[in-house]
Amino acid sequence: MSVRLLAALAALSLLTGCTLRGPEVRVKAPEVVVDGQGTHCPPGQAKKGRC
Question: In b/e form, how buried is each residue of 2-20, taking b as 16+ CB within 10 angstroms?
């Protein structure tokens, strides 16, 4: 066997246990809280004087 082939096999055997992981992305949905007193006013309606 040539020295190059032996070196390539040795390098490949060292890399077989390696794994690569990318960055993790986690997304949370926004929480919507509506109170039961009827004080919620849709966007833009307060500017029109409807609330």
Answer: eeeeeeeeeeeeeeeeeee
Is the distance from CB of 34 to CB of 40 less than 8 angstroms?
yes
pTM: 0.30
Instruction: Report which of 20, 23, 21, 3 is spatially closest to residue 11, judged by C-alpha positions.
Output: 3
Tokens found for residue 36:
């039961």
Residue 51 near residue 45, CB atoms below 8 Å: yes
Which one-letter DSSP state was computed for residue 15? H
The pLDDT assigned to 35 comes to: 60
